């Protein structure tokens, strides 16, 4: 029997990319998956009548969306055994070029939404841990949490916040049976650049040509499946060698990054602009 069989798992941001791959992976292992996204058409296109999966439209950056999402899970399954915080957004460019609404959206989705949805879900996760022996919180972080580099300064800051939140939450709940994990990918082939710059693909066909360079999202989904079966809380990188990014927090590496990257700000701005243009045409 697979350890994921019959577990009720909520996966946010499931319409594409890492989220969609995670839903497919967990459902194939027998989990009962609830997922959400802002685009109902993409959800229907992704899952339709896939066994073991139910989908609902919700924006986890909004308080009303978070509350409605949790109500949907409980109404359908009566419990929650695990949550995978996948929904997130980035923006590529220098901070001085960044619109205020993009800053607000990224912080609301990547950090505030994660903390608040966890807060709402925690009583149900603790109940599941007491009754069924375990519960899990999986936070989709990034290697950018350790090496905060332009043109992803605000994105990196939110992921550093997610990393700190995970450490603190572990110290609140692990003794009560809730494991807290972070999955920290390197570059992944997803739509995040187009989405972050206001051009979310409306269909799978529309998404062609908009994917950023990187590893396949299925590799990240496999690691999510692994940590949901781990015997203790985990922090994992995808690929594993990407853990070298942790050196970015240590002197003298951090001082070298300060000097080298700040002197290349103009080149970074131009490179980010080219990457965005290529994916929003």
Automatic annotation (TrEMBL):
Keyword Oxidoreductase attributed: yes
Species this protein is from: Blastococcus xanthinilyticus
SUPFAM superfamilies: NAD(P)-binding Rossmann-fold domains (SSF51735)
GO MF annotation, one: oxidoreductase activity
PANTHER family, per the entry: DEHYDROGENASE/REDUCTASE SDR FAMILY MEMBER 7B (PTHR44196), DEHYDROGENASE_REDUCTASE SDR FAMILY MEMBER 7B (PTHR44196:SF1)
Protein family per UniProt: Belongs to the short-chain dehydrogenases/reductases (SDR) family.
Official protein name in the record: Short-subunit dehydrogenase
GO cellular component terms given for this protein: membrane
Record keywords, A-Z: Oxidoreductase
Upper lineage: Bacteria, Bacillati, Actinomycetota, Actinomycetes, Geodermatophilales
InterPro entries: NAD(P)-bd_dom_sf, Sc_DH/Rdtase_CS, SDR_fam
């Amino acid at each position: 029997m697979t350890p994921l069989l019959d577990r009720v798992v909520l996966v946010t941001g499931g319409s594409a990319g890492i989220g969609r791959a995670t839903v497919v992976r967990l459902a194939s292992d027998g989990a009962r998956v609830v997922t959400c996204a802002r685009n109902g058409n993409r959800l229907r296109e992704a899952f339709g009548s896939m066994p073991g999966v139910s989908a609902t439209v919700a924006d986890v950056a909004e308080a009303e969306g978070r509350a409605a999402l949790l109500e949907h899970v409980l109404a359908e399954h009566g419990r929650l055994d695990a949550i995978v915080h996948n929904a997130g957004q980035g923006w590529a460019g220098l901070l001085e070029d960044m619109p205020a609404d993009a800053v607000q959206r990224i912080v609301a989705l990547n950090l505030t939404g994660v903390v608040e949805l966890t807060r709402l879900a925690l009583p149900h996760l603790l109940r599941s841990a007491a009754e069924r022996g375990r519960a899990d919180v999986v936070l989709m972080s990034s290697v950018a949490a350790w090496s905060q580099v332009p043109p992803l300064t605000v994105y990196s800051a939110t992921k550093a916040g997610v990393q700190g939140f995970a450490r603190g939450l572990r110290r609140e709940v692990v003794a009560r049976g809730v494991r807290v994990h972070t999955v920290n990918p390197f570059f992944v082939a997803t739509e995040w650049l187009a989405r972050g710059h206001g051009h979310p693909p409306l269909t799978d066909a529309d998404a062609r040509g908009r994917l950023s360079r990187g590893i396949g999202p299925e590799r990240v989904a496999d690691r999510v499946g692994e940590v949901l079966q781990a015997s203790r809380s985990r922090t994992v990188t995808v690929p594993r060698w990407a853990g070298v990014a942790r050196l970015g927090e240590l002197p003298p590496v951090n001082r070298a990054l300060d000097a080298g990257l700040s002197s290349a700000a103009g080149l970074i701005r131009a490179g980010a602009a080219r990457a965005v243009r290529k994916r929003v045409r």
